[in-house]
Write a structure and sequence with these properties.
350 residues; alpha/beta; Rossmann fold; SH3 type barrels; Elongation Factor Tu (Ef-tu), domain 3; 3 domains; 6-stranded antiparallel β-barrel; globular
């Protein structure tokens, strides 16, 4: 009898990881790992029920300390500094996948897996390429910070499927979470109210002024942590036109509002690059780029600027936001990613 190779799968208690477990169990000895962040809920019980249904070993790991250090603390610091953080993209390379790899090393597994909608491919030079999943569900943006040493060990069994197919497979396999709704919130803020979460932690910026570009006071805001560039809802400011957040000034505690015409940027700056399909930019490179977690992809020319990268946008991008990722693509392959640090935006004349 041939022994199946072992794989450690992140088993969250949701339908995606459950179907990933069912698919993997055909070729691997699957070990499910539930990452416990100490908030209770049904996740752990649901993950255990899936493991029991499939007859796979079930493990748990307490990741609260690592999550606080690597994700929650920086998340709070970003908002206090006027940036808009992206916690899932930080968690994947620093908390989630390291936890899976730690168990893999312990039990002698060569591979780890998750229920993300992405794909990998082996390049001729031996590196592993991160590729998009199918368009409807692609999650390559959030995985683009994974370094090559992690990608070498990762399997994404759902990469060739759409969510509707995964739901159908869950039902056909009679998995106990087949009809469980998807969670769309940040895992450590399950109610979605990040401003209240920040306020419960203690130090938050005080209320301040909404101002226009000329410095005229338009109203009062509840603290800069409640706003992000391009935001047009929940401002509570009326005037001759709809207002949008166009600048956040943490030093003065001001939030600048405009009609939104000055949100378009022709040049975007990013730093702390994670090079995946290319090794730097010895020459300018034509790419497409996502500047937020959406399907919007714009053409750009990427140029090296010391250790950073400048993206010359072929069409202006709306509200590139410090704290978010710029993910560079060559076709369906992630070339690199970097954290947005700023942009050159069009400021309308008089």
């Amino acid at each position: 009898m041939t022994t199946k190779p072992k794989v450690v799968l992140g088993l969250s208690g949701g339908v995606d990881s459950a179907v990933a477990a069912e698919l993997l169990s055909r070729d691997y000895e699957v070990h499910g790992l539930y990452l416990d962040i100490g908030l209770g809920g049904t996740g752990k019980a649901d993950a255990a029920a899936v493991a029991d249904r499939l007859g796979i070993p079930f493990h748990t790991a307490d990741i609260r300390d690592a999550l606080e250090r690597q994700v929650c603390g920086p998340f709070a610091a970003d908002y206090l500094a006027g940036r808009t953080p992206l916690p899932c993209a930080r968690c994947n390379p620093t908390v989630k996948f390291p936890a899976l790899l730690a168990l893999a090393e312990e039990i002698g597994a060569d591979k780890v897996a998750t229920g993300h909608y992405a794909r990998t491919a082996l390049a001729p030079d031996g590196r592993v390429l991160l590729r998009k999943g199918l368009r409807a569900n692609d999650q390559s943006y959030m995985l683009s910070r994974l370094p090559q040493d992690i990608l070498q060990k990762v399997i994404f069994p759902l990469g060739d499927y759409e969510k509707t197919q995964v739901r159908a497979m869950a039902g056909a396999a009679e998995l106990p979470v087949a009809n469980k709704p998807d969670s769309m919130e940040i895992c450590f803020i399950p109610d979605g109210d990040y401003a209240a979460w920040l306020e419960r932690r203690g130090a938050v910026p005080p209320p301040g002024d909404f101002v226009d570009r000329d410095g005229k006071v338009l109203g009062r805001h509840g603290g800069i942590h409640r706003y992000t560039l391009g935001q047009g809802r929940g401002l509570g400011v009326s005037g001759p036109h709809k207002y949008y957040v166009t600048e956040i000034d943490p030093a003065c505690g001001k939030v600048v509002l405009s009609d939104g015409a000055d949100l378009m940027a022709g040049r975007v700056y990013c730093a702390d690059m994670n090079w995946l399909a290319v090794d730097g930019l010895p020459e300018p490179l034509e790419v497409t780029v996502r500047l937020r977690h959406s399907k919007t992809e714009l053409a750009a020319v990427a140029r090296a600027d010391g250790e950073s990268v400048v993206l010359e946008m072929q069409t202006p991008a709306r509200a590139p936001t410090p704290g978010q990722l710029a993910v560079l693509y060559l076709g369906d392959v992630v070339a690199a990613s970097g954290w947005i640090t700023g942009a050159d935006r069009t400021v309308p004349g008089p």
